[in-house]
Amino acid sequence: NTPSLSRAALALHFNSVPLVSIEITPKTSASCSPAPESPLSSAEESVKSQQEEQMCQASIQEPSETSESQPGTPLPLPLPGHAGLSIQEMVAMSPELDTYAITKKVKEVLTDNNLGQRLFGESILGLTQGSVSDLLARPKPWHKLSLKGREPFVRMQLWLNDPRNVEKLMDMKRMEKKAYMKRRHSSIGESHSLESGLSGSDLTQSQQQQPHLKKPRVVLAPEEKEALKRAYQQKPYPSPKTIEELASQLNLKTSTVINWFHNYRSRIRRELFIEEIQAAASEGGSPSARPGKSGGEGDNSCDGTESDSTAEGRPSGSEERKGLLESPNRSQRDEEGEAEFPSASGTSRPRGGIIDSLFGIPESVSTATATATPCRNPKDSSLRKKKAANLNNIIHRLEKAANRDEPHEWEF
DNA sequence: TTTTAGTCAATAAC
DNA sequence: GTTATTGACTAAAA
């Protein structure tokens, strides 16, 4: 898997740098050579001398094809400087970070220095461009992130802390360009010889011989999306039967409809997070402050329109604040009196002291001292719409909780 | 088994 | 060429 290898190779250069001023005992690696198939490998030569020393400080793990998606496997990362801590350990020990402030700062630095998301993502985060774009545009609040989800933010924070971050990324950019030019030159030469040696039919044949493994991407028509959105407004959690019906009516595969609902729920949820954050920011609070009372989309309890209707039949006050979008199962579990936002307060996590210094987190970025997000009303109709849909979601869950068998009638 | 979280990668939009 | 969007997928939680 060339992309993975090149990604890992790219990252090793950057990630072997001490990002904060801490006494380090760098582990030495048996091999500091970059991945052989890395597109940058030729260009790397030119800057190798500058970076070799840093590279070899890294505790390098052989990059594997799937390393990036496997939890627990260290990603290409700036860790060697951190007293031998793995990224997972750092994430686990990290104080609460203000994801919104971090992404804002990262965007700023990247734009100011004309650095692309792809380069940043592949070399610093170990993520693809699309993922980076998504992450930067719609960061989830820290307390809503799983350990894995926190990882990119910790990486960003570490990168921001590195005084030479831009410089290094610039170097990387230059190397990439060099390598690209080199490849382009050689491929031009190749295509010349191909043109002279292959007839048109030969090319067609070789193309035909390529196994057609890739499925064409499904692109939903606007009407189809509209129909699905309407269905979502009615029922955010459609039954298998409804899904079947939708699929046949829209002439789509069932799996496409299922995926669409999964994705839509997830993306709506995130949109609500970001709207929450922005609203809080505009009101002067810490942007991604842990909602505590407002609870992400759960701030509906502050919103007269929804809270009135959601309050009825809610099992408990805390339930109301738990957020409209949590899964039905979770909701049922919540009824048993589980503490609110168990992971949010970071009670079991060391805060400040060595870890704060490790991250070098400025006040503006850490939310450890942040205040709760104030309540607010929705500012536009789209938000209202989403919340209305979420209301349906709640109703759905209440139905389920109240009556395990599909309820035909409501009893109040 | 269903849902969520996180991500990839194709491709649309700029 | 870069960034945004989005259908599909995997892993993990519930």
Automatic annotation (TrEMBL):
<comment type="similarity">
    <text>Belongs to the CUT homeobox family.</text>
</comment>
<feature type="region of interest" description="Disordered">
    <location>
        <begin position="281"/>
        <end position="360"/>
    </location>
</feature>
<feature type="compositionally biased region" description="Low complexity">
    <location>
        <begin position="29"/>
        <end position="44"/>
    </location>
</feature>
<feature type="domain" description="CUT">
    <location>
        <begin position="88"/>
        <end position="175"/>
    </location>
</feature>
<feature type="region of interest" description="Disordered">
    <location>
        <begin position="181"/>
        <end position="219"/>
    </location>
</feature>
<feature type="compositionally biased region" description="Low complexity">
    <location>
        <begin position="188"/>
        <end position="201"/>
    </location>
</feature>
<protein>
    <recommendedName>
        <fullName>Homeobox protein cut-like</fullName>
    </recommendedName>
</protein>
<feature type="compositionally biased region" description="Polar residues">
    <location>
        <begin position="52"/>
        <end position="72"/>
    </location>
</feature>
<feature type="compositionally biased region" description="Polar residues">
    <location>
        <begin position="202"/>
        <end position="211"/>
    </location>
</feature>
<feature type="domain" description="Homeobox">
    <location>
        <begin position="211"/>
        <end position="271"/>
    </location>
</feature>
<feature type="DNA-binding region" description="Homeobox">
    <location>
        <begin position="213"/>
        <end position="272"/>
    </location>
</feature>
<feature type="region of interest" description="Disordered">
    <location>
        <begin position="28"/>
        <end position="82"/>
    </location>
</feature>
